[in-house]
Each structure stands twice: as C-alpha cells, then as structure tokens.
Amino acid sequence: MLVIKDIPSNTRKYSVINDNIRMGDMQQRKKKLLSLLPVFRIVMNISRDKILELEKKAGTLEPNAEERKLVRDKVVAYAERFINEIEDEKAFNITEDMGMGIYDFPIVEEQLDIDTVLEVFRENVEKPGLNPASGGHLAYIPGGGIYYSSLGDYIAAITNRYAGVFYPSPGAVRMTNMLIKWMANLIGYPADTAGNLSSGGSIANLTAIVTARDAKGLQGADYQKCVIYTTKQAHHCVDKALNIAGLAEAIRRFIPMDAGHRMIPEKLEQQINNDRKSGLIPWLIVAAAGTTDVGAVDPLEEIGHISKKHDLWFHIDGAYGAFFVMTEKGKRLLKGIELSDSIVMDPHKSLFLPYGLGVLLVKEARHLQHTHRYSANYLQDVIEAEDELSPANISPELTKHFRALRLWLPLKLCGTAPFVACLEEKLLLANYFYAKIAEIPGFETGGEPELSVVTFRYVPASGDANSFNKRLLLEILRDGRIFLSSTDLEGVFTLRLAVLAFRSHLRTIDGALEIITQKTDELLNANS
Ligand SMILES: Cc1ncc(COP(=O)(O)O)c(C=O)c1O
Question: What is the pLDDT of residues 481-527, one digit of tens each?
Fold first, then answer.
C-alpha cells in the first residue's frame, strides 16, 4: 500500500488506483489487496538463482576487455584492409548471387565467431553492387564516408548519449545546437535559427513541409486549394513528403525553366498572381540549391523577394548543393539563400559523411516548435533549459541516434579548411571533365556545370542516340571501375557524372574519361 501512496497523484494511470483506495470503504480495500495477492506470490516464487543464471547467459552482451580486444582488432583490421585497397577495388560489382548468401546464415540462438561474421559480410554486403565509399562512385549524388565520422559513430554508440532532450543529456544537445548554429551561420540565417539533425534529406524535407503547412495555418479544408511552386527538377522526395503530410491533393505548379534548368522567376510570379485571382491559396515555393539531375541552382535571390512580396513560405532543397556556400563560387551562385524560411542541407552528401545525416534549418524556431512540441505524463520531470532547444521538441523523433558526434568529431579533428578544399576540388573536377569530354569527337554536353554534375552523351553518326547511350552505360557498369548513372532530360537519355565522393580526384576523372572512350570505341567497333 505504501508503494501505491508514494506514486505521484498526477501520474494518471496510478492516480485512479490511489483515488479509489482513498475513497473506498474497507470492503473495497480488501478486494484490492486480494487482487494484488497473485503478484506477491509471483515475487515470492522468483528464485535468485534463476536471475543469476539469466545474467550469466546474457553475459555475451557485455564482453570483457580481452573479448572486446579480440573482436575490435579484427573489425579494425577489416576496416583497414577495406580502406587500403579501395583504390584498386571496383566501384560497382555485379556478382553471381548479389548477396543471396546472407540468407544462409539465419538469425538463430547460437553465436557465430567474428571471422565467419566478417567473411559473410564481405561476400554478401561489401562485394555486390555499388561501393559508395569508392572515388569511382560518380552517379546519383555521392558522398563517401570520411573516417573520423565513423569514429564519432563509435563513441556515440558506446556512450549511448540520449540526444533528444536537454535534461538527460545537456552536452549532447548543446553539441547538436552548436552545429545547427554553425550551419545557420554558413547560410546567413540568424543565430537563433532552429534545426534538426535527421537521417537524411528526405526526412529533412518532410519535416520542412509539415512545418510550412502549420506555419501558414493550412487546415484540411484548404488542402485542395493550396499551391506549391517548384520545377520539374525538384527531387521526388518533395512530392513524397507532400503525400505523407496529407497534402496529396494540393496543387503542384511546375514553373518553366530556362536552358540551364533553373526556375524562371517571372513565370513564378505570374503563376502566383493567376492562382490568387482564381481563389487558390499560394502557399509554398520549393527552390533547388543544386538539383540532383543536373546540379542546377534556382535564382534564389529573386525567388526570395517574390516569396516575401506574396507572403509564401520559401523552402530550399539544398540537400546536395547548400554546403557549396563554403566555397567562393558557391557563395556567388547561392546568393539569396538566406532569404529562405527553411533549408535542407545534407552532410552525408556534400560534407562527405557516411550515410545517415541530413539537416533542416528553420529560420524562425517557433514554427518548428509549433508543429513538433508535445508532452507526456512520463516526461513530467523533464526540466527545460531556457537557452537550449531540445531536438525532440522540434522534430518528429524522440529517441534518436546521437548524430551530432559524427559531424562534430571530423570538424574538430580536421577543421573546416579541408572540407572547403574538397568542395572546391569537386567543382574544378566537374569543369575539367566537362571540358575534356567535349573535346572527344562525337560527345555532346549539357550546359557548363553550375556545381559538380556534368551531363553528356555520345551522338553516333547513325542510329538511335538514346539506345546507344543506354548500351554505353551498361558496358561501363559491367566494367565496374566507375559507376555512372543516367537521366531523362526532355525525353533525351542523358549520361551524368556527379563528382562529390571525397575520394574522387584528378586521377579518377582521367580514368573515367579513359573508360568512357574505351567503351564507346568497343561499341562502335562491334557495330561496324
Ligand atoms: C536535391 C536532393 N534532395 C533530396 C534528396 C534526398 O535525400 P536523401 O537521399 O538523403 O533522403 C536528394 C538525394 O539525392 C537530393 O539530391
């Protein structure tokens, strides 16, 4: 009974019991006690030996120093071999069973030794498919996976700091917020900007969209009338986010683009005016700071002014391109980025981190809080810090990986200078490839790369260019030394080379030019 009395009366579940007992007559008390009897019986029957036996059985979960060393040394040796051999390994590997062997080792009660485990991993996970850690990864939007970041993840997992709320983990939350402030400063956002470290760009964009929805006071009845302005170049995760946010019926306007695949601001303004006149609700502009397809940057400054004039939420998807603001070229190109209300930027792309870190910044913290702040009875003793925002109050997640450490550690161990150099190197490598491929007879290119994506294709003297380039891509992938991808630009099958992996260097691009030329010649010879 004492135990029950001690439970705080404002804890809903128990207060019912409490009230009943206080109110109840003797009869009720007796009934209550009787109902608790089976619980006491169970407690009496529990044997200490059994508990100790279970502790022993679970002991493998807490290896001793010697056991830790044995496994750690093997894991480190594996990682060292992987990194040391990476230059000679393929970027893309088509194996016979494409990892099916993983199913030969089902999840069972018994343990496996570390040698077997690493071998199973190597054969079935490391070998088949794309090696995103390779400098030869020149497709989609690469990144790489810098080493110090992996050590950040290691410490984060070992210390298992809870990075969701200030009260249990003030240091982890301060570190998170310090990184947010650093990125806000890069963009030109104010110091009190709020932000969230998410798993990647898609979730960051989703969080931005629900925040924009609530910030502009959209209600269910408005969903069919509210309008989103973007271009056909917008990443599909924006469309996906709208659907997830319940806004599937919202009207999408794809604003015409110029020859460089950039939104035309005049067309945007025209469309907003027309929509307003028609009784629709112009709500959100999603501009790109680096499109996935071609790396185009929309005219952010002009779009920013239009959004202010017409009172729309201005969101920038800079998942790929926003960190280029750290370079001189990027600063010029991304002028006006600070006019946005929110922006996504992905360290697992253009800060070269291993997969698992996207960032959303929202200029006015209150909007992120408005959408995401909740409380629960069991969190009643959480003390809020006046000066720190808790990630759980400004994002969909409560418990999360301590993501800050994977960014903070490399920034501390390297400083920002090598990141800037690496970004500048990628910009120049893209320009270098663009110039070189254009010199090879038969190849045509898209526009000069704004960031680090180059589009190109071979135009054969006769025959269908689309099918030739499809076959060319297939041959390049079969070879596997580099990994390229393609896109469809206005019905034209176009090859693309995206330079962003931190291990892509001049020798990689020279190698890529050689492979592309070689495979083109082979195809032409086979056809003749
Ligand atoms: C411009 C852009 N936005 C958003 C995303 C989605 O990011 P993520 O894959 O991290 O979810 C990508 C992915 O490549 C992208 O390039």
Answer: 999 999 999 999 999 999 999 999 999 999 999 999 999 999 999 97
Contact (Cβ atoms closer than 8 angstroms) between residue 469 and residue 495: yes
Supply φ then ψ for residue 365, to 5 degrees. Answer: -55, -35
pLDDT tens sequence across 89-147: 999 999 999 999 999 999 999 999 999 999 999 999 999 999 999 999 999 999 899 99
Residue 425 Cβ inside 6 Å of ligand 1? The answer reads: no
Residues 58-91 have pLDDT tens digits of: 999 999 999 999 999 999 999 999 999 999 999 9
Are 235 and 291 in contact by the 8 Å Cβ rule? The answer is yes
Task: Report CA(75)–ligand 1 centroid distance (Å).
Answer: 30
CB-ligand 1 contact for 201 (6 Å cutoff): yes
HSE, side-chain direction, 13 A CA sphere, residue 161: 22
How many Å lie between the centroid of ligand 1 and the Cα of residue 201?
A: 5
Nearest partner of 341 among 320, 358, 324, 366, judged by Cα = 366
Average of per-residue pLDDT values in the chain? 93
Residue with tokens 């009875």: 377
- Distances in Å between the alpha carbon of 72 and those of 78, 84, 103, 118? 10, 18, 25, 12
Residue 252 gets the label, from left (phi > 0), alpha (psi -120 to 50) or beta, of: beta
180, amino acid identity: I
What pTM was estimated for this model as a whole? Answer: 0.91
User: Does residue 231's CB lie within 6 angstroms of at least one atom of ligand 1?
Assistant: no
Residue 327: what are its φ and ψ, rounded to 5°?
-100, 160
Full DSSP string of 285-328: EEEEBS-TTT--B--HHHHHHHHHHHT-EEEEEETTTGGGGGSH
Nearest CA owner, ligand 1 atom 16: 292
Cα 450 to ligand 1 centre (Å): 18
